[in-house]
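Justification of resources, computational component.

The compute hours requested in this renewal are based largely on the per-chain cost of generating structure records like the one below. Each record pairs the submitted sequence with a full structure-token output. That output is archived, and it is also reused by downstream analysis tasks.
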Amino acid sequence: MERNEFQGRKPPVKKGERYKVRIESLGKGGDGIARIKGFVIFVPNTNVGDEVEIEIKNVKERFAFAEVVG
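The structure output for this chain reads:
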């Protein structure tokens, strides 16, 4: 998957939406990384393998930030 796949395209998530995701890896800052349709979602306070429900809090052009809910 190319790094800039979503550049110039509308992200597949919106602020306030909720999803069930699996944390695939950890980012440099220690946040969990999940993907929705290939789009990177950073989820703090998670570990690789966690299956969590998240709410999208902030959407950027190539990635988003979310928090665990529930």
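The longest strand covers residues 51-59. DSSP finds no helices and six strands in the chain.
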